[in-house]
Design brief:
alpha+beta, Zincin-like, 5-stranded antiparallel β-sheet
């Protein structure tokens, strides 16, 4: 329990540990991955449940992601592979589990989280309001494409450079400096000003 309280609000550690122990689940804390915040693996080849979570998440994002994956584990225990990964069974389980932790979230996160929980998505990072509120609690500053002005030149993680052109509904249209093609970016895409 001591180690887990480094990553999540300490008030939530006992409940999380109870669930992990009840289902004999191994929790792996991983270095940051580009494509996912967390992952659940069902029992196979004699191994039990395995949940992995990125180590760079702030305590609130870590708790939401871990609870998301625990909901997958509990749904798998009840239904195995007979239901959709983010179907109604998972949504109901995730909502039920998150109710335990709502008192531990600050108000600026609680409001978008409550809205998110009405119909949770496969990834909390698809929810712009929730992700923005969670990022405000990061110990480091992130620049997103929505933070920079139109006409700015920026680069993404692979070093490719773009020019921000305009907003189209939810995403931003940008032109690649390399091949002059147009690309659409999620407003939460992390960028470096060039």
């Amino acid at each position: 329990m001591q180690e887990l309280s480094i990553y999540i609000p300490k008030e939530a550690a006992a409940q999380i540990n109870t669930w992990l122990n009840t289902y004999n689940c191994q929790l792996k804390i991983k270095k940051p991955r580009q494509t996912k915040l967390g992952d659940y693996r069902c029992p196979q080849n004699g191994k039990g449940h395995i949940i992995s979570i990125n180590n760079n998440l702030n305590p609130y994002a870590f708790l939401i992601t871990l609870t998301h994956e625990i909901a997958h584990m509990m749904v798998w225990e009840k239904h195995q592979n007979k239901v959709l990964p983010h179907g109604s069974e998972w949504k109901e389980m995730f909502q039920k589990l998150m109710l335990n932790f709502l008192p531990f979230f600050p108000q600026d996160v609680l409001t978008p989280l409550a809205k998110h929980l009405k119909n949770p998505k496969a990834s909390s990072s698809q929810d712009v309001a929730l992700t923005t509120a969670l990022r405000a609690h990061n110990p480091y500053q992130i620049t997103t494409i929505s933070d920079i002005p139109i006409g700015s030149t920026f680069s993404i993680a692979n070093g490719q450079k773009f020019i921000k052109l305009k907003k189209l509904r939810k995403r931003y249209q940008c032109r690649s400096e390399h091949n002059n093609r147009l690309y659409l970016f999620n407003p939460l895409a992390e960028v470096t000003i060039a």
